[in-house]
């Protein structure tokens, strides 16, 4: 199992990150989010490796923006088991460009933290464009 996943929230698990953002954002280890320092257009991306042990259900990643008034789902991607390799690793990739404000927080959640492939690195980043 992937180490130190934050507790379940609305059926999803926040993935703790050790990734770095560019100079316009910073990583907050205390709550596992990336904090935007400066308003602007940003490219947000993540790549999540999922293991398929049972080969029966899809696995999903969610990228959220957190503000004082709540959370907003920005991006979502699901991967499905492959019949040819039901015990392999599937990579879920998602990315997009968003206008973010100073103080916005970004977090990555997954539908099933027990299926994160701990042999591979979770990638999550933000770059100002």
TrEMBL record:
<dbReference type="InterPro" id="IPR008983">
    <property type="entry name" value="Tumour_necrosis_fac-like_dom"/>
</dbReference>
<dbReference type="GO" id="GO:0005615">
    <property type="term" value="C:extracellular space"/>
</dbReference>
<dbReference type="GO" id="GO:0005125">
    <property type="term" value="F:cytokine activity"/>
</dbReference>
<keyword id="KW-0472">Membrane</keyword>
<dbReference type="GO" id="GO:0016020">
    <property type="term" value="C:membrane"/>
</dbReference>
<keyword id="KW-0202">Cytokine</keyword>
<dbReference type="Pfam" id="PF00229">
    <property type="entry name" value="TNF"/>
</dbReference>
<comment type="similarity">
    <text>Belongs to the tumor necrosis factor family.</text>
</comment>
<dbReference type="InterPro" id="IPR006052">
    <property type="entry name" value="TNF_dom"/>
</dbReference>
<feature type="domain" description="THD">
    <location>
        <begin position="1"/>
        <end position="129"/>
    </location>
</feature>
<protein>
    <recommendedName>
        <fullName>THD domain-containing protein</fullName>
    </recommendedName>
</protein>
């Amino acid at each position: 199992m992937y180490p130190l996943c934050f507790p379940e929230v609305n059926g999803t698990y926040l993935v703790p990150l050790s990734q770095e953002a560019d100079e316009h954002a910073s990583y907050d280890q205390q709550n596992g989010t990336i904090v935007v320092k400066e308003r602007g257009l940003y490219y947000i991306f993540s790549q999540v490796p999922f293991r398929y042990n049972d080969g029966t259900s899809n696995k999903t990643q969610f990228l959220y923006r957190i503000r004082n008034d709540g959370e907003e789902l920005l991006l979502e991607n699901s991967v499905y088991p492959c019949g040819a390799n039901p015990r392999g690793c599937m990579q879920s990739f998602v990315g997009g460009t968003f206008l973010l404000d100073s103080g916005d927080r970004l977090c990555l959640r997954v539908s099933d933290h027990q299926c994160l492939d701990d042999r591979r690195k979770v990638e999550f980043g933000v770059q100002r464009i």
